[in-house]
């Protein structure tokens, strides 16, 4: 039976339309009616080098809107939600190395068929691995259990321009939280709107397929994150997306769209709703490949190599208790609470930075 209608459209109907659009209508990135596929800035040189080795046929059917590649992911178990033709999985298969693994999930057969076509040759010849460390699975990202993805089995979730295409964002984020191991992270790029998309636009098929109807208002997205357990979402990068098509432009009116990369850490029992000061400090060891001089956790927190920086409790946990832990030294614990960090702020440590602090 079809799931109930949500926000004016049924999930089953949206899935069918999206499968048709990405499986049969679009042939290449250039067919899209927005600038989404070119919105992200230039990738890091290490990512650019990995991209150059991805088969051209896979690259041609890239429909992402960002750059969802954290550096330093050797050995991690990666899951790509809505992998499409698999471009980002191919890049991650190189970045995690032979000891890591990459699983791409998508619901569209044509995309999966292309993703699978070059997988063996790419892993075993281009990368020179003994056996492929990358696989593709058919499934819906709202129901990862049905696709065989077990609870706590993933270190890093990536996703590129997909969550906007589901009417049930809460289910996707709750599933992401469930399948991540403690200390794991969802690092992903997606389309967002600077205001709530009016109800009458949410039934327009092309607006849905292009991600314009389903893009969340950023503040609503942040609320859902907190509801499912990602208590302190961190924004990394943000780029405007232009709607090229005049008809669609007229329909969306004054709404503006952005491609944003967020980092959501799963640190159960550790992250707090507010930014608290326990007198902790963190020091980046300079060990992440491609980041010898500094590491940016998010748009507000950059850590120069070997420099101690005062951090709030949440930032200390993200750096010390997550997969990033081997690249940071964190001093102090939570035995003494010194109040809010910084004084008076109830949010993440991103404002009114005291000198020498992380924020
Ligand atoms: C805009 S494309 C992005 C594909 C890929 N991430 C990339 O960067 O090229 C969206 C993809 O998400 C898939 N998709 C959308 N909604 C999905 C869902 N609910 N479950 C699984 N896959 C979904 C589509 O089949 C399509 O391949």
CATH domain class name of the largest domain: Alpha Beta
Alpha carbon gap, first and last residue: 50 Å
Q: How large a portion of the residues is in β-strands, by DSSP E?
A: 15-25%
CATH superfamily of the largest domain: Vaccinia Virus protein VP39
Low-confidence stretches: 1-6, 344-356
Number of domains: 2
Radius of gyration over all CA atoms, rounded: 20 Å
Q: Supply the helix-strand structural class.
A: alpha/beta
Q: Biggest sheet: strands, sense, closure?
A: 8 strands, mixed
Bound molecules: S-adenosylmethionine
Keywords: S-adenosyl-L-methionine, Transferase
InterPro entries: Arsenite_MeTrfase-like (IPR026669), Methyltranfer_dom (IPR025714), SAM-dependent_MTases_sf (IPR029063)
Protein name: Arsenite methyltransferase
Enzyme class: transferase
Short description, anyone?
By secondary structure, the protein is α/β, with parallel strands linked by helices. It has 2 domains: 5-265, Rossmann fold; 269-359, 3-Layer(aba) Sandwich (Ribosomal Protein L9, domain 1).
Walkthrough of the structure:
- With 359 residues, the chain is an alpha/beta fold.
- It contains eleven helices and 15 strands.
- Strands 3, 4, 5, 6, 7, 8, 9 and 10 form an eight-stranded mixed β-sheet that branches.
- The structure holds S-adenosylmethionine (SAM).
- The site of S-adenosylmethionine has 25 residues, from α1 and α4.
Key descriptive features of the protein:
about 350 residues, alpha/beta, Rossmann fold, Ribosomal Protein L9, domain 1, eight-stranded mixed beta sheet, three-stranded antiparallel beta sheet, 15 strands, about 25% strand, globular, disordered N terminus, binds S-adenosylmethionine, arsenite methyltransferase activity, transferase, EC 2.1.1.137
């Amino acid at each position: 039976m079809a799931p109930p209608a949500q926000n004016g459209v049924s999930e089953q109907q949206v899935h069918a339309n999206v499968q048709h659009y990405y499986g049969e209508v679009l042939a290449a990135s250039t067919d899209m009616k927005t600038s989404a596929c070119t919105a992200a800035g230039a990738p890091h040189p290490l990512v650019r080098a990995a991209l150059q080795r991805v088969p051209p046929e896979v690259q041609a059917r890239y429909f992402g809107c960002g750059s969802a590649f954290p550096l330093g992911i050797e050995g991690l178990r990666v899951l790509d939600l809505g992998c499409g033709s698999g471009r980002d999985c191919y890049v991650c298969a190189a970045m995690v190395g032979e000891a890591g693994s990459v699983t791409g999930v998508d619901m569209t057969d044509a995309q999966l068929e292309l993703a699978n076509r070059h997988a063996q040759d790419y892993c075993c010849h281009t990368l020179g691995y003994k056996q492929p460390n990358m696989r593709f699975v058919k499934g819906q990202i709202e129901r990862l259990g049905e696709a065989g993805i077990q609870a706590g089995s993933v270190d890093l979730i990536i996703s590129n321009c997909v969550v906007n295409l589901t009417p049930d964002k809460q289910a996707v984020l709750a599933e992401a939280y469930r399948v991540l191991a403690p200390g794991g992270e969802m690092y992903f790029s997606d389309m967002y709107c600077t205001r709530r998309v009016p109800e009458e636009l949410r039934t327009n098929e092309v607006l849905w397929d292009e991600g314009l109807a389903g893009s969340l208002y950023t503040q609503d997205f942040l609320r859902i994150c907190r509801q499912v357990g990602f208590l302190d979402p961190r924004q990394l990068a943000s780029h405007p997306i232009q709607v090229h098509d005049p008809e669609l432009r007229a329909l969306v009116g004054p709404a503006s769209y952005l491609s944003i990369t967020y980092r959501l850490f799963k640190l159960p029992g550790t992250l707090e709703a507010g930014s608290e000061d326990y007198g902790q400090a963190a020091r980046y060891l300079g060990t992440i490949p491609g980041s010898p001089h500094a590491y940016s956790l998010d748009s507000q927190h950059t850590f120069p190599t070997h420099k101690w920086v005062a951090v709030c409790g949440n930032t200390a946990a993200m750096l010390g208790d997550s997969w990033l832990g081997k690249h940071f030294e964190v001093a102090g614990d939570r035995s003494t609470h010194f109040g809010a960090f910084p004084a008076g702020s109830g949010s993440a440590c991103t404002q009114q930075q005291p000198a020498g602090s992380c924020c």
